[in-house]
Design brief:
Strand content: 25-35%
Radius of gyration: 23 Å
Mean pLDDT: 79
Number of strands: 8
Helix content: 25-40%
Distance between the termini: 43 Å
Largest sheet: 4 strands, antiparallel
Length: 220
């Protein structure tokens, strides 16, 4: 009788595990869009998936952009990856299915996910102390950059090329030092749903990075 009870318990757990697995996504699709305030408002450059257009329409009153184009997209499971934005800027993306990590009776209803999403410039500072040190370093690099730019008009031949190379190197160093965290959010979404996770202004404010996340249903 005891063995029979153990068998019933094992079968019940197996069914529960199977049911739980069916309520989880197969993975996530992350799309980085470049939104621009100047444009015709055409959506021809968007992916054909209807969920993308619906997600943007749901938040159109909160976004100033008239046109969008895809700069990068990736399919991933829970975890982290790197993606590229405009001007080859690299971003670190982390997506976590929170309920898989911490089973809880507070879990949302079946078919609904609790997701943690993070987006940051590649190499962003991890704490306030590091951010302070980088701010000092950025100020020093900015001075060097301004000095080299002032010398460029008077440089000729090989000296001019050397000066341009130095300026490009300083610009890359400055971009890395100024790397920062952009999005750190937790939210609920349905399996198969596409949501706008967040935005980050770039290019002086007339452009912005718009991040969309889709939970891909199992078997897709």
């Amino acid at each position: 009788m005891k063995a029979f009870r153990w068998l019933v318990t094992i079968v019940a757990l197996a069914f529960a595990a199977s049911a739980f697995a069916q309520t989880r996504p197969n993975g996530f699709s992350v799309i980085l869009l470049l939104g621009e305030t100047q444009g015709s408002g055409s959506s021809d450059a968007l992916p054909p998936a209807p969920g993308v257009r619906k997600a943007l329409n749901d938040v159109k009153d909160f976004l100033p952009y008239k046109s969008y184009r895809v700069v990068d997209s990736q399919w991933m499971r829970s975890g982290s990856t790197r993606m590229k934005g405009p001007d080859d800027q690299e971003y670190e993306v982390e997506v976590t299915d929170v309920d898989q990590m911490i089973p809880s009776p507070m879990r949302p209803k079946p078919g609904v996910l609790r997701v943690a999403f993070k987006l940051q410039d590649a190499g962003a500072a991890q704490n306030s102390s590091e951010e302070f040190g980088r701010s000092i370093q950025a100020a020093e690099l900015e001075k060097q950059l301004q000095h080299d730019r002032a010398l460029l008009p008077n440089a000729q031949g090989p000296m001019a090329e050397e000066q341009k190379t130095r300026i490009e190197r300083l610009q890359k160093q400055l971009r890395l030092v100024r790397a920062k965290k952009l999005i750190d959010s937790q939210f609920e979404m349905e399996i198969g749903e596409t949501v706008v996770v967040g935005t980050s202004k770039i290019g002086g404010g007339d452009k912005g990075l718009v991040v969309l996340l889709t939970s891909v249903a199992a078997g897709k």
